[in-house]
Specification:
The structure is a homodimer.
Chain A lengths: L6 H7 L6 H9 L4 E4 L15 E6 L2 E6 L5 E7 L4 E2 L1 H6 L5 E4 L3 E6 L1 H10 L1 H27 L2 H18 L7 E3 L4 H8 L3 H13 L3 E4 L2 E4 L2 H8 L15
Antiparallel strand pairs in A: 1-7, 2-5, 2-7, 3-4, 3-6, 8-10, 9-10
Helix pairs in contact in A: 4-5, 6-8, 6-9, 7-8
The structure holds a DNA duplex.
Chain lengths: ~240, ~240
DNA sequence: CGAGTCTTTGAAAACACTCAAGGTAGGTGG
DNA sequence: CCACCTACCTTGAGTGTTTTCAAAGACTCG
């Protein structure tokens, strides 16, 4: 029926064999399509929130503003990821959500989601897995900020993004298209934009990875993995989830 | 019936008015009491896990080991907190869990939890809130590592812990008992133990807070809040959660 | 072509780290 | 009861990574 699968479906299908009925429910969640403009916040920090979204196309950044004006990026969302799910559940938003490019997203009401769960428990399992994976990524990010130097941090970040994009058909071990600026990288990795530039230059000169003109190109994947101590286990879990 | 309320009950009661029946179900979850020895891991990194726990007494640390031998502490758990809930849901553990002192914890089977939810939906809401709060704390921790200097990081950490402990009756704006060593602080805050020592000395000399002999004493609470830019909104949410 | 955004580089300064060493307190065994 | 051990805390000196400040080059878009 649906030959044109959504990124979320692609991602979940990689880990849970979903039946036809489940796929149908999943696609139904993508009904209310909306588009949002780059740079205009979906959710402001402190605002109490109404709806969650499934990102269909484009890149989004979740960030937290500091009183001193600096910002820390908590995570980036790519197609197939949820937006603002926690904000909805908590009825409050402790962080901002901003599209990096023009995006397309499906609005999901909590009621729809709960109903989908009731109809197809396996789908609930799959989504629970996705949410838990998001949490694992935040933890990994935290470890990077606390215990990796700037080079390893950058390498790890670019590798993780590569794996995530591969799961939705937007990347490979060769590289991927990437609309992020060096300022984005700086705010995500807890570095200054200037230092990001130096680190990127070093990685490029060492022929490990090239970040340029909106493209990330892996020149030496294995070398980069070694530099970053990158273990993708938390991303592309092989064993079955729950029952 | 229950005059002797558990820390978890105390914590949840602060934010959701729970009926007698709900309180009873909550206390029932505390049946299978177990004790664990300080320093002996409950869960090893990489191990796939069986049970979750509700911590009743003592302190626990969740950490992630790096290939280079260093470790990053993701969070500390105090009475009333869940242990290993995500590990159970994901059927895998990406981090270790170690008691800092001898602890007492109630084993909770996933089936029990799900049944409790079915019986008392409001309880599910309350626990969902607790889990989401844990996530918010990890995010706040991440922001600290990325965008706060060592002094502010330490100040923020000690303040957050104070608020958390207050919710279970183990602390106040005066201070609290704290079994952590400077090595724990170092691994949590992404600093070297030596630097932690210097930072603590500075905070003590500035008469802001004193960390000594297992006690944290706030000498100037407001000053510390200002230094850390501490906003406890994410911890002691006032508005009602969900319906 | 002018404005804005993003990238690149240099120089100096600040922050946090490593190495090295000593001090304290509590526990253990002779 | 003392010597020793271990774990934790404290301090100094020197080093190195990352930052800030300053400035300029490249690109895109209207």
């Amino acid at each position: 029926m649906n030959t044109n699968t959504s990124p979320l479906t692609q991602k979940l299908s990689a880990f849970v064999a979903l039946a036809e009925a489940e796929l149908a429910v999943l696609e139904q969640l993508h009904q209310r399509r909306r588009t949002f403009e780059a740079g205009r916040d979906l959710v402001h920090q402190g605002q109490s929130e109404q709806a969650a979204y499934i990102l269909a196309a484009g890149w989004v950044v979740s960030y937290k503003l500091q009183p001193d004006g600096s910002r820390q990026i908590v995570d980036f969302q790519i197609p197939g990821d949820f937006l603002g799910l926690r904000s909805v559940l908590l009825h409050t938003s402790d962080h901002g959500i901003e599209p990096i490019v023009d995006i397309e997203a499906a609005e999901v009401l909590v009621s729809d989601l709960l109903q989908a769960f009731a109809e197809t428990p396996r789908l609930a399992t799959a989504i629970l897995w996705a949410v838990s994976r998001d949490e694992a990524m935040v933890v990994e990010h935290l470890v990077g900020l606390g215990r990796r130097d700037a080079d390893a941090r950058m390498a790890h970040f670019l590798l993780e993004l590569g794996v995530r994009l591969s799961l939705v058909g937007m990347g490979s071990k060769k590289g991927y298209a990437c609309p992020l600026t060096q300022y984005h990288l700086a705010d995500a990795l807890g570095l200054s934009a200037i230092h990001v530039n130096r680190v990127l230059r070093k990685l490029r000169e060492d022929e490990l990875v090239t970040f340029r003109d909106g493209f990330v190109t892996f020149n030496n994947y294995e070398g980069l993995v070694k530099l970053a101590d990158f273990d993708p286990a938390y991303l592309d879990q092989k064993r079955p989830i729950l029952a």
